[in-house]
């Protein structure tokens, strides 16, 4: 993990410690991936599941959602994405350098 | 039954934060909308692709799972998408601060 991304991640984590703890109590796990290359950075799941989430959710669906939002209004941009499924819910938060997904 | 639907739509439309409600048929054609037509068609096109992609993604991550709703929180709106077999409902909200 490059130092820039590690530092950026630490900063965001510190700022949102309270929220993070509140969510992580209910969450099944999390996945963090890097935006530019879509590589897996950090996860609490096993590698296969995490890679699957990064590949399907971060790399393809999140990009589609972001471009759709900008398509409708060029000045708008996606802040947060929630995909609710029958079994659980994906909370996807794209940041500047990385993307965090919590699985609830 | 149609009168019921109209009533429900009107009730939700009158909430202060709701900017618009669109109901699409399975081919992404708006059958009911409270927003102006150009914007509706624009939303229909974007949301239809998104909902289809999401459904495929969810079933590829876990074959027994299925998609229930999608919430897109952008800087200025929140878009709630509820896909179903015979329709797609889109609600655009202005989140109050």
Automatic annotation (TrEMBL), chain A:
Gene3D superfamilies: Dynein light chain 2a, cytoplasmic. It comes from the Eukaryota. This is Dynein light chain roadblock. It comes from Drosophila ananassae (Fruit fly). The lineage of its organism: Eukaryota, Metazoa, Ecdysozoa, Arthropoda, Hexapoda. The gene is Dana\GF24767.
From TrEMBL, chain B:
It comes from the Eukaryota. One of its GO terms (molecular function) is dynein intermediate chain binding. Residues 5-93 form the Roadblock/LAMTOR2 domain. It comes from Drosophila ananassae (Fruit fly). Keywords: Cytoplasm, Cytoskeleton, Dynein, Microtubule, Motor protein, Transport. The keyword Cell cycle does not apply. It is found in: Cytoplasm, Cytoskeleton. Belongs to the GAMAD family. One of its GO terms (biological process) is microtubule-based movement. Acts as one of several non-catalytic accessory components of the cytoplasmic dynein 1 complex that are thought to be involved in linking dynein to cargos and to adapter proteins that regulate dynein function. Cytoplasmic dynein 1 acts as a motor for the intracellular retrograde motility of vesicles and organelles along microtubules. Pfam families: Robl_LC7 (PF03259). This is Dynein light chain roadblock. GO terms for cellular component: cytoplasm; cytoplasmic dynein complex; microtubule. InterPro entries: DYNLRB1/2, Roadblock/LAMTOR2_dom. Gene3D superfamilies: Dynein light chain 2a, cytoplasmic.
